């Protein structure tokens, strides 16, 4: 199908004005590829609507012109979900200008924001009303609410607050035919028919375009305490988590595991970072407990709980941060991980999950297989242990994998090992990053045929012309 | 369509044995109507399978015979969702014999149970592993997990733990064509494609039959404190909730409002119950805070928080229970509500929700309209204020509404007032009870046409022959 680009641009300009229709290759460049530069598309134009009505009008025009639509937010995804297809006429519909905070309702613990609102701004709006919006991930300063909803984002707060799905009360969505579905309800209980908003959460823009959301707010935290703990094995970490949940309930704000090898790499490449404790154990957990009640002595409670855990042989050693600076030094070990690994070699990272109870088995299995099959590979582990979400990181020797092709082949091999092991243990090939363009073939390989067929049934029912982000999640 | 009942029974008996195919009217009686006796159906048979494979085989037989299927659990629903249709051949598929606890995985905080498992048994299984399954409602001793999933049950724990939807990690479902979908994953994070289990949660058996579920467990509670608080108005109750959330975070286990008139009715008909405080305020809140940490002094914290709230003019008076017996006396006021109202007159109860911030307006509006339009009506209020879920209870004078027809007409009038007011304020006509057979016409009246159309699209895509619980949620 051939498309007259100039005609198309004029049609869109009639709706949103020429200045918000980008067609110049240079102006489009940053929108045409993902931020890591792994995927590149060839959209005919980038459209920048600033209202739901404009989105709806643009979608109607695309339906008429049979042009595919790729919704895009902050473009911070890791699986190429916001990149245009190469094989058919498509436009990128960037929602960053739909960025208003429509309402903060502190009494209802809710916040209504548009899709293009940056996560940091949503969090600030909550704080201004003595509330918190607890979703937190690395790209907090640039990722946008619409993308977070569409990928059912995870991050570090899932253990305590759930994924994005659990934080969404209502949605506004422009459907594949251009009609606006107003599901912006702000209710804690609503069983009046099917819960339609669930369709669009985590659908990566393949069933419609999220234009606004009502988000659930939580009480602010007033006290916290951080510790670093040394452990003999992953089983101890799982048991320590369970023990702590029995002692301090849902106050565990973060519970992150790192293998010794991973911490050593961070120290080696981390420009003067130091470990607050000797690295003579194979595993470490970095944890924070936090609470709203300022009457609660978080540091004393953490010390008491860790002492009791030590008496139960659940840990080898522990350091509790006695002030904010010391707590920050502990968390720097975690936050500098990606940067350090980049310097260490060619890094292949994964995002899988298994039931928490299967983590020890999973980690043993992947480590052994990778080390057996890839000469010179160093396997590190870090992740959200409370969510069963471990990032298996293989640092490959540049000596063995010298060319780009060799690196690519090794990465494929590592990914396959990790994905297969997670599925063997009842896990997922994508815990929090989604499928996007990257994992379409992998999903076909590992999902049961019936699951894929049910997904196609949904797609066919809501987007029969396959105009909404085609080729993402499911093959076009 | 005429159906040979005897032939049908033989066909089903071949699959599950004759003793588990009920066709005798007397044996079927308890399954043919809802427990309140408001809805009665005419199923040809009641089938009692005891495994997922048997359910699948029965569904395949029904597809072949073109007989509709009504899934039924503990039959404790309030909207007639488990009653057979009158206008076509149908069978009731009762899941109570599928009642095994398949797995408790304490390290993963998860529990895998079959659909027919009674809620109390699921809770006991969690407790035996030092965990809790927090869903709790009046019918705990007879309602079953499959029904709780299919109606997205609410209850008293929603403020802290969410609805059933938030407590489900995975599902096993027999689809309308008899295939078994194995979605029994036990993961905290899984973004590998559409989250298909969401389709079946709250779908009231219209898209498939839930046969098993993986449930999320929480830490057990070790300390708690209860108080009863007098308030000048509903706005104070909303502000008190917010204040308490700021002080004690997510430790609020229950926060229930009752109007003075409602408490007076309970005392009048409650066989010797007494109020622990003078009833000189128009509104009362019964609350419990609870925590896993036995180091936390719940009673002292509740006293401190309520004193601070008093200083902020958020309450008029408060009584904190100093022991378990006193706490129980406070909660008896709430638990005897339904029983007392039954004695007080002809009672019309509702189950709507609005955003918490709109509760004061909602309560004023419905009270005024009911009292204006129905002579001699007493309006009481009780409910889960933290969820915006207020049960508006109109106690109608038997003098004015003498006949069954007059009562029915008055009930219709009250329901319409309450539903209209909730929708005006952004609320739902069914907060936690679902639609079933009872509210199908009401849903058509109050849901936007686009919502209804999207629901029909889903139903058509997954159950094109309309064999699964036809006439529930959507008109057949």
UniProtKB/TrEMBL annotation, chains A, B:
Example GO molecular function: FAD binding
Reported cofactor(s): FAD
Assigned keywords, A-Z: FAD, Flavoprotein, Oxidoreductase
One Gene Ontology biological process: respiratory electron transport chain
Keyword Oxidoreductase: yes
InterPro entries in alphabetical order: FAD-bd_oxidored_4_C (IPR004113), FAD-bd_PCMH (IPR016166), FAD-bd_PCMH-like_sf (IPR036318), FAD-bd_PCMH_sub1 (IPR016167), FAD-bd_PCMH_sub2 (IPR016169), FAD-linked_Oxase-like_C (IPR016164), FAD-oxidored/transferase_4 (IPR051264), Oxid_FAD_bind_N (IPR006094)
Lineage top rank: taxon: Bacteria
One Pfam family recorded for the sequence: FAD-oxidase_C
Chain ranges of the FAD-binding PCMH-type domain: 39-220
Oxidoreductase as UniProt keyword: yes
Homology family: Belongs to the FAD-binding oxidoreductase/transferase type 4 family.
Protein name: FAD linked oxidase domain-containing protein
Species this chain originates from: Sphaerotilus natans subsp. natans DSM 6575
Phylogenetic classification of the source organism: Bacteria, Pseudomonadati, Pseudomonadota, Betaproteobacteria, Burkholderiales
